Amino acid sequence: MSDLRLDFERLADARDRLASVITEFEGARSIHAGLPEATGHYRLQFAVADFRDAWSVRREQLTDEIAAVREAVVAIHDTFQALDAELAQRVTAFTSTEESAQ
Fold first, then answer.
1. Which residues, other chains included, contact 49 with Cβ-Cβ below 8 Å and sequence gap of 6+?
2. What count of other Cβ atoms lies within 10 Å of the Cβ of residue 77?
3. What's this model's pTM, rounded to 2 decimal places?
4. Hey, how many other C-beta atoms are within 10 angstroms of the C-beta on 80?
5. How far apart are CA 31 and CA 46, in angstroms?
6. CA-CA distance, 13 to 63, in Å (whole number)?
7. Which is the most buried residue in 9, 41, 56, 77, by most CB within 10 A?
8. CB neighbourhood size of 34 (10 A)
């Protein structure tokens, strides 16, 4: 039987970093709103607007995918932390029972 080792601090760090990325992606919408007009030339404005719009769609997709990964990390962290606490409690209870029997 092999051991399973999880670093809860790294999982929590990953959770927090993913949340930060989501916040950055969501905040990028307002930053790019006036970008095409800032370019000056009307043809460049259209090209920049097309890129902005395509990137907005892709950024939204990436945000959803990153949120799904974050939810998985949270579930793994919380589930294994609860399992670890339950197993520790059972081992403690078993050890106490064994010591009482002697």
1. 36
2. 18
3. 0.76
4. 14
5. 17
6. 18
7. 77
8. 8
